[in-house]
Specification:
The protein starts with a helix and ends in a 12-residue tail after the last helix. α2 runs antiparallel to α14, α3 runs parallel beside α8 and α3 packs across α9. It is globular and about 55 Å long. The protein has 14 helices and 15 strands. Helix content is 37%, strand content 20%. β2 and β3 form a beta hairpin. It folds into two domains: 225 residues, DD-peptidase/beta-lactamase superfamily (Beta-lactamase, 3-Layer(aba) Sandwich), CATH 3.40.710.10; 110 residues, DD-peptidase/beta-lactamase superfamily (Beta-lactamase).
Length: 389
Amino acid sequence: MFKKMILVIILTAGMPLFLLFSKEDIRQDPVPKVDALAKKWMKADNLPGMAIGIIKNDRVLFLKGYGYADIETARPVTPKTKFFIASGAKSFTAMTLGLLVNDGKLEWDKPVRDYLPGLNMVDGYATRHMTSRDLLRHSIGLPKEDHVWKQYIGTKKTRRDFMKEFDAIQPATSFRDDMRYQNVGYILAAHLAETLTGQGYEEIVREKIFKPLKMNNSTFSIDELKDKGDFAFPYQRVGEKGLDKIALTNTGIASPANGIYTSAEDLMQWLKFHLGRGKINGEQFIPEKIIMEMHTIQMAYRRYPDSPHWFTLGYGMGWIIDVYAGHYLLQHGGGVPGFTSMMAFMPFDHLGVVVLCNTGQTEVPDYFMRNIVDILLGLDPVIPVKAQR
């Protein structure tokens, strides 16, 4: 009897609050707020173009382009316009290895050298013990070393050739001592996938990820990008208000780390897949256990948070893991000259956000993503709209 009375009291006390939130959700449509903020960010930071996508409870809530994909011809940005997402590509490489784990061709914690006997590194212990988990969580101890892979762009050399460079790269930290963000581990991860399948990495992603998810506007190829049309040209800032068109980015063998052109529309499919924990149209495409490994902290950030509202816990596999306003948030941005991107999703809130820009040197995709999250959580935006340079 006592337990029943307690339950009645709890339900009765909670009912007005529930009704208040229900009315608030019905009364306040987030779309006008997002649209108004998008226009303010475009003007405040002098952005040439931007695309935004929001998914909530398995439904696309907002999908819109702003500004220009090509200023000279006044060609507008659309939800299908392809942008370069730079390091956002890392989440696709993590999924590529996850699919190999599902196929029984790879184990997360088996040494990479068991699959690639010729692999050598300066650190002999790392050579013997480094796993695919280490590659994806940035615990291999190597520096970013972009100059190593950039010399391969425009050549016929392959990732297999690049692997010969590994025994010359000096460690930046001790193996597994700290999370050190870099690209070379993801290049090695792609080479591992190519060795285990006999297919090129780009071919694997097209066949195993883009195709089943119907990401028809996604590509690694600049030639294919131009053939399909509706892509954003990259722009570089000149002075206070000037914007100069620059060359499209080609990362060559480093595409597993930072080399995908895709659209806000396609990335809605990508986030829907992650929010569904590996389901496509209700069917389990990859076991939940495998995709959850990617969403779980694998390497903690050894850094005191700047704010209790917004801080990073660590790195999963292809995703940075934050706590934002008390909510679990997975995100990954990307930036190169001419492009900046941000993808984020909140698994417990069933919410995903994409912001893409065709200029570099801007924090707008990251900050605006958090504005959008604030709106959808019913919070006042923490970050004010202003030029971020």
